[in-house]
Amino acid sequence: MPHALRLAQRGIVGLEGVTRCGRLNGILSCRPGLNLDARFSRFSRAASPRDIITAQKGDGACIIEGFLTPEITKRLNKDITAPLLNLRPGHRGTDPDLQDLHGENTKRLYNLASHSRTWREDIINDDAFHAICHEGLGKRQGDYWLSMAHVIEIGPGSRAQPLHVDGAQWWPFWNMSPGDPEIMLNFLVAVEDTTVENGATRVIPGSQRLSYRGDGEEQSAASWEEDDAVAVPLKAGDCLLIGSRVVHQGGANMTTDSHRKVMTMTVVSSCFTPEEAFPLLIEREVARTLSDRAKKLLGYKEVTPFGSAGLWTGPAEDRAKVLGF
């Protein structure tokens, strides 16, 4: 049975998705519209943010070559080497689904602001990064902020991550259509070269145009097949940019000695709660050194989504007294 037909029968694919479904003599028929041979567009970091976001929306992903300069990539790598070595792989919780998503031989380094001066001074202050966030989120939705930033290191022998969509972190996502404003952007930046063999991120082209419906249980991206996904190898410093809807996964690491190391930075509309509680994680002495733009990105300032009178608020003098800056 065609995969698109299985999706439609389970109520996962909507009529406005890339799969066209209809009934002929009482029989449900579908014509898949996925282009599994798609080539994702490539840009330099100096490219127009509008062109970058247009490509990301149209294809589900795009690649920004040299998003981090070689020098910044080198310094970031140096900053995170010791903290990564001190981490144990795997997920500490008891939920088997989260353990599977995390990966048995995968490390995730959180709280990058505390671990890397390069990250907090250079990467989150980068003009190109903020220009893309403004184009993809800020223009239509007002302020944006950082949901999370991790370095994900997939160790040798790791299985592929389950297929998933990042928007599933917030339940309203399931009631939003492909034509609604984007709620998040994920910057997946290679800290070292990623290859098909060591677990390069895999993306299902066109899956961002699917419409989901149901009760949540049937809205799983795992309904896709791994053969639908396309691996996207990256050179160190390159960025794979995706949104909330595209189905993707970390690939299997089929090597015996190579670690796939990627930094993921998820930026969301400020009407959504971030995944990482940055103001509770970052030492006050470190937070005090952040630029105003970085403070806002990390939740130290009031944010104003479109149509809002302001969120994360409090009298300015009280915030200054509590935070010490």
From TrEMBL:
User: So which domain of life are we looking at?
Assistant: Eukaryota
* Molecular function as annotated in GO: dioxygenase activity; metal ion binding
- Look up the record and name the cofactor or cofactors this protein needs: Fe cation
Q: Where is the signal peptide?
A: none
UniProt KW keywords: Dioxygenase, Iron, Metal-binding, Oxidoreductase
Provide the coiled-coil residue spans: none
Similarity comment: family membership:
Belongs to the PhyH family.
Q: What is this protein called?
A: Phytanoyl-CoA dioxygenase
Which species is the source of this protein? Answer: Purpureocillium lilacinum
